[in-house]
Every structure is written in C-alpha cells, then in structure tokens.
Amino acid sequence: AQSVTQLGSHVSVSEGALVLLRCNYSSSVPPYLFWYVQYPNQGLQLLLKYTSAATLVKGINGFEAEFKKSETSFHLTKPSAHMSDAAEYFCAVSSNAGNMLTFGGGTRLMVKP
Amino acid sequence: DGGITQSPKYLFRKEGQNVTLSCEQNLNHDAMYWYRQDPGQGLRLIYYSQIVNDFQKGDIAEGYSVSREKKESFPLTVTSAQKNPTAFYLCASSIRPLNQPQHFGDGTRLSIL
Fold it and tell me: Less Cβ crowding at N or C end of chain B, within 10 Å?
C-alpha cells in the first residue's frame, strides 16, 4: 500500500522568498516520487522525479526536492519565489514494484508581490 | 510535437444526457488514464488502460464508461447515471510499467446546464 500527504493545502510566500512545499509518503517498497505543477485550467506538468538515484533531485524552473528516507519525506523547494510560480503543486508516489502513481491532495502556492 | 490532446476544452450537458470526452495521444504510450478533479481536491482515478482492448476501473468508475479500440485513443463517456458530473476531467498517458511518470492533457471542463 502507498499513500502521500501534502501538509498545507495553501501556502503563501512573498516574491523572492524561499518556497517550501511539504510531502510525506508511505510505501511498503522503495518508492518512486514525483512533483507536478498545475496552472489554472491546464493539465499537470512534471517538475521532477526521484527513482532511487541521487537523493537531491533538480527539476525545471529552479525547483529541487530532497528524498529523505528516514523522514519519509520529499519536500519541494525553490530559493527565490517568482510570481510565475503561483500554481497548484502535486506530490505523487509509485514504487519499483510497479504500482501506479498515487497523488496527494495538492498545495496551492500563492506569491505576493 | 508529441503530446496528449483533449477535446473539447469546455462541455455542457443537459440532465439525463450521456456525453463523451475525447483523449488522443501521439506519444506511443501503452497506458492511458482518466482522472476527475474537483475544486480544492486532488485527482481521483476513474479508469485506466494498459493495452488496447483492455481497461480497469479506478476508484470512482460508477457512472462512467471507456473504450480502448486504438492505442492512441481512450474516450470517456459520462453517463446519465453519474449524478454529479460537473468537474474538470484530465486524461494522461505513460509507458509501462505503471510506476512511470504520467503525461497529461490540458483537460475538459464539464458543466451541467
């Protein structure tokens, strides 16, 4: 069984501030982990993925995430928020056992000028 | 460019009518998926298909039907049995196995008149 929890359905930051979006997972086998971004009235776009290689994963648009097995976490960060980062972000988990992706409930990021 | 095309972007349905949402992909992916997204909620899996002429129910299949006659196409029919069909519908595809990242279309927004 696998599941993913995103802490905070809404996060607000000022432009230029650090972005931190939290994701904790549960998986009985080694996980694969993903972050997606969704802009209004659009589909989801893959930001980055972890599939058991380097624990620090760099993605598009300056985002990165670190896999921490001891904390069962895969938090998404960006050093400096930009207005264009305002969107909804989804964390997802699958596994090396072939399980389909399970998505978290999403976090809406708001960026204040 | 390869991708997933969902049509139409907006769709209106009268009470008691069936309506079909189109999803076409030219990524040569074997697996295809349909999700429903409601405001402030995550993605809920309706149906998925791993290969032509085969598909499986997801978490909320009641009131929906699908077909997979061609690798490129995975249409979703919202039947009159679906009591609350107003939602944003997302189609996705991936290579197999199912633990691989999914690629999404831009969605169809269905509303009841």
Answer: N
Closest residue in chain A to residue B9, using alpha carbons only: A41
With residues binned 3-state (H G I as helix, E B as strand, rest as coil), the percentages for chain B, rounded to 5, are: 0, 50, 50
Contact B111, B86 (CB under 8 A): yes
Amino acid B40: pLDDT: 77
Mean pLDDT of B81-93: 93
Residue A81 near residue A15, CB atoms below 8 Å: yes
Picking from B9, B92, B79, B63, the residue whose alpha carbon sits closest to that of residue A34 is B92
3-state secondary structure of A36: strand
Place of tokens 């802009």: A39
Could you give the 3-state DSSP secondary structure of residue B104? strand
